[in-house]
Amino acid sequence: MASVSVESGAASTVSCGLASNNLIRRTANPHPNVWDYDFVHSLKSPYNDSSYRERTETLISELKVMLGAAIGGGESMITPSAYDTAWVARVPAIDGSGYPQFPRTVEWILKNQLKDGSWGTESHFLLSDRLLATVSCVLALHKWKVADVQVEQGIEFLKRNLQVIKEEGDQDSLVTDFEIIFPSLLREAQSLHLGLPYDLPYIRFLQTKRQKRLANLSSEEIHGGTLLSSLEGITDMVEWERIMDLQSQDGSFSGSPASTACVFMHTGDMKCLQFLNSVLTKFGNSVPFMYPVDLLEHLLIVDNVERLGIDRHFEKEIKEALDYVYRHWNDQGIGCGSLCRIADLETTALGFRLLRLHRYNVSPVVFENLIDVDGKFLCSTGHFNKDVASMLNLYRASQLVFPGENILDEAKSFTIQYLREALNKSETFSAWNHRQNLSEEIKYALKTSWHASVPRVEAKRYCQVYRPDYARLAKSVYELACVNNEKILELAKLDFNIVQSIHQEEMKNITSWFRDSGLPLFTFARERPLEFYFLIAAGTYEPQYAKCRFLFTKVACLQTVLDDMYDTYGTLDELKLFTEAVRR
Question: What's the whole-model pTM score?
Fold first, then answer.
């Protein structure tokens, strides 16, 4: 070869001076490597140190115990609800003594008043949560004529904060059915002559909103819809004998202690009392907003560990959780708890997606039972945050569609429109939702479909938005400690960095092999060892598949040389000779 010149372009050429003629050959290597090999070998990571791997093993062991207790042992770690505890505290003793049936709940209320005079979730301030919990606790203490000073402090908190709200826009996100329950409790407080401001513009607005919402509900919807968990807010509309037909197997009404306590005080039903006793036996002196929430909790645990990229450490726990959910799966949908009789769209959509991803036999027919008469998917109809969470999960579930599953195609179109409209609503950008990254979650979901997601990129992104103190909204602000906690996030970050350090070492090995293999001597061929490595590592990233990644990259490099030889460089006569040589 007398001379070689390489020109830039879509396809470079190599001019070869031969004895009889000049042959112009094409090359398939039009651009340089993305990363210089020397740069790759300069990469260093502190996470190669054994101390990080030891810490990782410790965290895995600790989390296995925690998740095992939640999934296998039913040890739900849910924060107490001051609102629901106050309703249970109002239950009078069944012996007619005139004392509370559950005096320890009254003691809990006395011990858990916050410094500003309110009750509620101390770690997260949401005014609607504090208002609802505080008026409920004030009414409970007033009923038993105890702690006059604390009652007055609660009243002062209510007065001070209600007067600040001039219009709806001044209020942050609302807990579930706030506009139904809060006016009802204020009406009760007024009948007891408690010194609260009852004629403020915001109070009148809530009363009007309550009337409009209830006016649109039929008797069947009141006695069988989402308000089953908020019966204490509509006592003037409930037919108590009729409502007993909707009592859950455990004696509760949608697992709500507040709703169940209210029904007990109106009916004296002993199954209600048994439920309240069982919840207090489990949680001590207080109760959560709902019990059980096992199905939702199991699904959220699986969803979080998978999105954080640490699911390979908890395969046994994931299988147990999904087996448990699948045992309760039915074509009517599932609720937050295994004993809940009312299907919940968020839990059902989340369950469908995770079960289908793990090859359980689930049919999208379940969503046909969650559509109202207007053809819209059923949401909470009174809780923006819950509706958005339901639509996000339904949108993600709709992407796991098989041919002919029209209901999922309809769900996808419906949820895309809903989520786009949600981005134009002020509620999406409220202070609470801003802290919860709601708008970013919606934007990311619409921009990046499940099919286009890369596991390592998703894990890194979710590590950045995952909050160990994440709180969810129902009738109270609550946290699920097994779903969101510091240890899970620490493990996810450590695991990501350790896996990345392993990949860096593998990249060094790949580039060393490539340089020593002689393949760079084929200057006409593409040098893409790192691109091929990333191609396989994007989907098969786990440390145990190191050999798989190495072999794939080797084969891809060899195949590329052959491909470029046949497609761009070799002449027909040369390729015939080469092919015959290989065959021999």
Answer: 0.91
